[in-house]
Amino acid sequence: MEPNKIISELQYKAVRSSGPGGQNVNKVSSKVVLTFDLKNSQALSEEEKALLETKFSSRLTSDFVLILNCDEDRSQLKNKEIVTKRFLDLITAGLHIPKIRKATKVPKSVIRKRIKDKKNISEIKKSRRKPEF
Prior knowledge:
5 helices, Double Stranded RNA Binding Domain
């Protein structure tokens, strides 16, 4: 995965932001919508596409397009930077393959110690009982 190649495939669209802001919201298109076509991407290999397709199945549209929005800042440029960074973090996290856990056996010394401690606690509790005549 090369970030520069992927960034060149991104499409940005400026939209009017919703929410509070008075007259400024009605005039300025500061919200940025990022779209990335996963199926037609040249920057990703087929294996990477398949991996991202399974991991982001709930976030993709029916045409396998990833859509991200950002309207955190009043500046369009800053929103564009934020959404691009968020997209790159999302892609790198999606391509991360976790290390396979190898099952290990519990050592015999640990088992012996647990049983010994158990017997010790049992003896302590026995000694607290009233004597039987």
